[in-house]
Specification:
Elements (H helix, E strand, L loop, with lengths): L4 E8 L5 H12 L7 E8 L6 H8 L2 H10 L4 E4 L2 H5 L5 H15 L5 E4 H11 L4 E6 L3 H13 L3 E7 L5 H5 L6 H6 L8 E5 L10 H8 L3 E3 H12 L18
Parallel strand pairs: 1-2, 1-3, 3-4, 5-6, 5-7, 7-8
Helix pairs in contact: 1-11, 3-5, 6-11
């Protein structure tokens, strides 16, 4: 392809991190690979991370997919892990299929990735049978996320729910605190660390430090989404400084 690849994102209205971390990773990739990217978003209304607001927000995802297909994006990512996981086991498959159908109806059939599906698939790619998880959500929502991951075949040995209800406050969480949070957990039997089970909680800058601290692969929802987007575009899933999954080994 001679033109840049168009990356579409379906994001909560209050999400500011996914439009930072995914461009950061793909721009870093441009330093070592020839492909170029542009970034395009459509928003679903959500301010408070509650099951009720998440369900209402998910109802707007079809409109967003339609809008992004108007721009003929090459891949689109549904950038809210907990919205998908709170809708019940396996919902990422239903969502991806339905949203792709919306783009097909608009004459622009487009591969759809969800951050929820990307994370559970990434754990399979890493052959991670056991993990520890850090999430910013209130405990009931975090437990839904843990249950979703476990139903997909990965055991969650321990989790931390940071219990931040306001989505903008999630984006303000200090990334530098994440290594100490992980250090306080028993990760000895874990195969991998899920450093952020949320695309709104910034984590990218802490990934190398936590990999050095634990000696284990570290993945985040944003890293997993980037990996799946690159695979969907049939591009090599490699990004410098973005952890084991994007190291080129997978």
């Amino acid at each position: 392809m001679t033109r840049p690849y168009r990356i579409g994102q379906i994001v909560p209205s209050s999400n500011i991190t996914m439009e930072t971390e995914i461009p950061a990773m793909l721009n870093a990739r441009q330093l070592i690979r020839p492909e170029r990217f542009t970034f395009h978003s459509s928003r679903m209304r959500m301010k408070t991370v509650s099951k009720e607001e998440l369900a209402a927000m998910d109802g707007e995802s079809d409109r967003c997919a339609l809008e992004l297909s108007d721009a003929a994006v090459d891949v689109m990512g549904y950038a809210c892990l907990v919205a998908i996981m709170s809708m019940g086991p396996g919902y990422h498959r239903e969502s991806q299929k339905r949203l792709r159908e919306r783009t097909k109806e608009n004459g622009q059939e487009t591969e759809v990735v969800t951050s929820a599906g990307a994370l559970v698939d990434a754990l399979k790619v890493l052959n991670a049978k056991k993990v520890v998880v850090v999430a910013p959500y209130m405990k009931p929502l975090t437990e839904m996320v843990v249950d979703y991951i476990q139903r997909e075949g990965t055991e969650v040995l321990e989790y931390r729910a940071l219990e931040i209800p306001n989505n903008l406050d999630v984006a303000r969480h200090d990334t530098a605190k994440l290594p100490d949070i992980v250090a306080s957990m028993d990760f000895s039997d874990a195969d991998a660390i899920v450093l952020s089970a949320c695309v709104q909680m910034p984590s990218l800058a802490a990934v190398p430090k936590v990999e050095a601290l634990t000696g284990k692969p570290v993945v985040t929802a944003a890293i997993a989404t980037t990996y799946q987007m690159l695979k969907a575009l049939d591009l090599e899933p490699v990004v410098p400084g973005a952890g084991a999954l994007l190291s080129g080994a997978y």
